[in-house]
């Protein structure tokens, strides 16, 4: 048998087998179709139950407060008490300035306050003396008037010389003039102290305010940390001459951090305030998950607030999908377990199942975003020091 005859016989055999097994081909095709249908149905259910209930982005970064530490008074740096990466507590001294000039001004203000209290005390005593002088002049006037009244009947009976009676009349006038002068003097003495105690006298209050300013200025030679956190970007050196407002370092609180997640504008449709979110930080990989919630949506896209905003009204315009920052607060308990740093990259997933919350904040915030009481304590101490000086210069038993 030739090769050609063998090939022809093989083709006939294959055709016969195919003709005998048409069901196998249909079953194989049906299985393939069913697999694709199942895969499509599974993908649809996955999208319907999972992907359609969340919005995700990897364009998200950790944000936090960066508190700039600056000088409030001019001076020369004599000590630096905190360095980069170190933790500091609110009220802790970070930098000290030379306090020689401030101490001199404080001593001057202290002496001025003490002198003001003593002067007001002296004015009070002078007013009391003036009141006593008024009382004495009243007695003199009554005595002169009584003498005149006794001699007037004698003058009518020609038993007294007219010169004597005239002399008594002149005495009454002189006593009245002396009384008027004493009353005016007493009024002038009371004008400086009337209506207030010594400690509330305007002169004392002015001296107290000057002392308070000098005391606070002296304390500001020690630059305090207004909040607790970690030092970064220290630029100050010992011996530097610093001016008010000059930044010396930064304190970054690593508590109460947030995420600025930049979602595409097409993703914002169902993102609302109050929705829960899950965050994964690149620094920990996928093994650590943070919990948070949406607290606000930015008022504009990032390009609007850039230094050079895009000019879209041009002939060569290309549409670029914009992104809007969404602020997400992080649970502090998660931050305690796994600390984050400002600026780290994260992946954010927002659960949009419940989209009934507001898109924009409905009312102003009722609590401060951040606050410090360090400077309130300084003012209270200044007042306490002023009170000590006032008390020390009041006479024993003197009313304040």
Automatic annotation (TrEMBL):
Entry's Gene Ontology cellular component terms: plasma membrane
Protein name: Membrane fusion protein, multidrug efflux system
UniProt key word Protein transport: no
Keyword Signal: no
Keywords: Cell inner membrane, Cell membrane, Membrane, Transmembrane, Transmembrane helix, Transport
Mode of membrane association: Single-pass membrane protein
TM helices/strands, residue ranges: 28-50
Domain p-hydroxybenzoic acid efflux pump subunit AaeA-like beta-barrel, chain residue ranges per copy: 258-349
One protein family per Pfam: HH_EMRA
Highest taxon above the source species: Bacteria
Gene Ontology biological process terms in this record: bile acid and bile salt transport; response to antibiotic; xenobiotic detoxification by transmembrane export across the plasma membrane
Subcellular location: Cell inner membrane
Record-stated family: Belongs to the membrane fusion protein (MFP) (TC 8.A.1) family.
InterPro entries with a match to the protein in the record: AaeA-lik-b-barrel (IPR058634), EmrA/FarA_HH (IPR058633), MFP (IPR050739)
Main location: membrane
Domain Multidrug export protein EmrA/FarA alpha-helical hairpin: 100-220
